[in-house]
Amino acid sequence: MKRSAGDLIFDVINYSLMVILAVVTLYPFLHVLAVSLNDSIDTIRGGITIFPREFTLANYKEILSSPNIAWATFISIARTAIGTITGIIATSMVAYVISRQDFFARRFVSGLFVITMYISGGMIPSYMLMRSLHLINTFWVYIFPGLISAFNVVVLRSYMDGLPVDLQESAKLDGANDFIIYARIIMPLCTPVIATLCLFIAVGHWNSWFDTYLYNPFNEKLTTLQFELQKMLTNAQAQMTSSQDIYGFAHSEQAKRISPDSLRMAMTIVATLPILVVYPFVQKYFMQGLILGAVKS
């Protein structure tokens, strides 16, 4: 079938827009990667686009040479895995309870969760609560405070509200209790939105560093990757500030090792790479969960 001139023009415009969109989307990441692979002194001069002018791995060597980086990575992986699993279990259980039509306090409990999305106790009361619970300087201070997110509960409850009630009633007639209905019927049907929430929770745990700074700042056995990277960046910025000017810093011994800009970009790649590796495996569920979680009411 011969295509008309209008179809060809449409294809040209469509493909051109897609290429522009791809370039705009990829450019920030390629720029960060180029700076992270560029020499520190050359980075200070600026003007780097998507290719490094003076290729080097010194920035990554500086990060990986930190004595605590390996253990901090292990702690970050452990808190991400444990926090995601326990978070999904706790969130799904709460969402299942308040999604039940026969739960008499359904609206009241849902309202309480919504209120916490707008009003919080603050940093000092939170710290005092963690201290009274004896969670300071423990691994569990990374897990328990974020065990349940009101936003995740609302999203998952909204999805469960759209599931057919007949499924639960049929299971009850067959002798299933609430836990069996939750585990064998509700949870499998909620796979798309659960995969989405898993990604949200995992990214939150992986990127978190302020709780380490607040609760475990001097405990090297409980330090996290993001906290160690933040300390390295702070030290590099302090070194640059202590110099008289940028020109002096560029010719100093510190700049021969690493600069704040190079370190920041290398840190971004190190922190983002695990998420980029995992995301393709959950992308299908992620997009489906976002759409279904948004339209269910």
TrEMBL record:
Gene source species: Mahella australiensis (strain DSM 15567 / CIP 107919 / 50-1 BON)
Localization per Swiss-Prot or TrEMBL: Cell membrane
Keyword Protein transport attached: no
Official protein name in the record: Carbohydrate ABC transporter membrane protein 2, CUT1 family
Domain ABC transmembrane type-1, first and last residues per copy: 73-282
Gene3D superfamilies, A to Z: MetI-like
GO cellular component: plasma membrane
InterPro entries in the record: MetI-like (IPR000515), MetI-like_sf (IPR035906)
Topology in membrane: Multi-pass membrane protein
Residue stretches spanning the membrane: 12-30, 69-96, 108-127, 139-160, 181-206, 263-282
Record-linked PROSITE patterns: ABC_TM1 (PS50928)
Keywords: Cell membrane, Membrane, Transmembrane, Transmembrane helix, Transport
